[in-house]
Amino acid sequence: xxxxRRTALYDRHVALGARMVPFAxxxxxxxxxxxxxxxxxxxxxxxxxxxxxxxxxEVEGPTARDLLQGALSNDIDRLQPGDAQYxxxxxxxxxxxxDLIVYRLDAxxxxxxxxxxxxxxxxxxxxxxxxxxSDVRDVSDDYALLAVQGPRALERLGLERGTAFTFAExxxxxxxxxxNRTGYTGEEGVELACMADDGGRLWDAIVARxxxxxxxxxxxxxxxxxxxxLHGNDIGPQWDAISSGLGWxxxxxxxxxxxxxxxxxxxxxxxxxxxxxxxxxxAIPRQGMAIxxxxxxxSGSLSPMLEIGIGLAYVPAARATSxxxxxxxxxxxxxxxxxxxxxxxxxxxxx
Amino acid sequence: xxxxESYPDELLYHPEHDWARIDGDEAVLGVTWHAxxxxxxxxxxxxxxxxxxxxxxxxxxxxxxxxxxxxxxxxLSGEVLEVNEKVVDAPETxxxxxxxxxxxxxxxxxxxxxxxxxxxxxxxxxxxxxx
Lengths: 351, 131
Known about the structure:
The complex is a heterodimer of chains A (about 350) and B (about 130). Chain A is built from 8 helices and 18 strands. Chain A is an alpha+beta fold. Among the domains of chain A are: about 10-50 and about 140-225, Gyrase A, domain 2, CATH 3.30.1360.120; about 270-350, Aminomethyltransferase beta-barrel domains (Elongation Factor Tu (Ef-tu), domain 3, Beta Barrel), CATH 2.40.30. A 6-stranded mixed sheet of chain A has the order 10-11-12-9-3-13. A 5-stranded antiparallel sheet of chain A has the order 5-6-7-4-8, covered by helices on one side. The N and C termini of chain A lie far apart (about 45 Å). The mean pLDDT of chain A is about 95. Helix content of chain B is about 20%, strand content about 35%. The interface of A and B includes residues 35, 282, 301 and 331 of A.
């Protein structure tokens, strides 16, 4: 039996009455009061998520840039110190080992925030490609990471607005933090990284500012409403990044692992594509459900804002255009759906 | 909004967290407080058709929360006489009132001898405590 790891905030989650579940080798809060109220508070006000289970890798040295340009799909040269970028760690066949955000800390030092379940795989993949003059270290245990998201997140934290995909050193009620203008909910907000030992103080300060604790359940429904893929569900080594709809994060003019394959897929067009869809009949799609005529649901849920079933699915390219009808096999019952545009939920088309 | 934990004495229970309220040769079925609490807020009720035949210990429908799907296990065999359309339209009614407004179906019993196999409230509470 595997022992589950706990973040610095475990005792606080339990004290708040969270339902703790195993997730990627960690014991994490899936919800406190309920997925739906936590989801809605992030859309209307602000919520805080403990995402300290995510991994942090530091890549340092005069050739760190060369290592990352060769290993990651996006163009690392677009980053100045203080900038962040969504990028992919790819396989030789253009599949995705992990999707991650890289932060350029200074001229020769980068921080990569990776998915919890992929920390080891990402570390090994980078370590294998390590160059003379670059050093890859797993610094996951050094950090606590709290995502504060929602239209009132900045106001409640007392932070100014900032440009998306930038970061700066900052401070929240006396705790030194790295303020990252990133998130996974489609709302304005920040992800705050601090030293692991300060995690409890930072959490308490955030909660004292009236920001509601939210679990991984709401994090999942929030990201699905805005069609952010989840590695392990919607993207992974078995699908190439173009078919997964992440061509925008692939700088095909640069040389990185798997680029030839991705250029070829882009050239001839993918056979299947990852698309968002909404149910047009009353039913909730779930991961693994088959789509008639080929294809598979990779994420599915009820949308708390739209109050209909929504999901992401791979479908044949011919049926990947918005408005195409799909039929989802919901445990033996055919239920109609239609391919939609991203994002499934937008503030302006609510109500 | 959510109801507080209770297991009324006048009901019979099935260890798969379903209850039955017996009225002559008919029964009203639902899920227990424990079941709705474990699932969280219900967002979908896949009900059987009126007229369908359902069997004891088998699934007659499904309820879903945002995160989970759960089969509805019938505590008794019979024919479906009525589906609670209020729960079809507003599944969270089950969370608010699992033994009242949140009932799921009404059936005509086909084998009243099955009643003897169900649990009393006290016996069912022990099942919940051991879970």
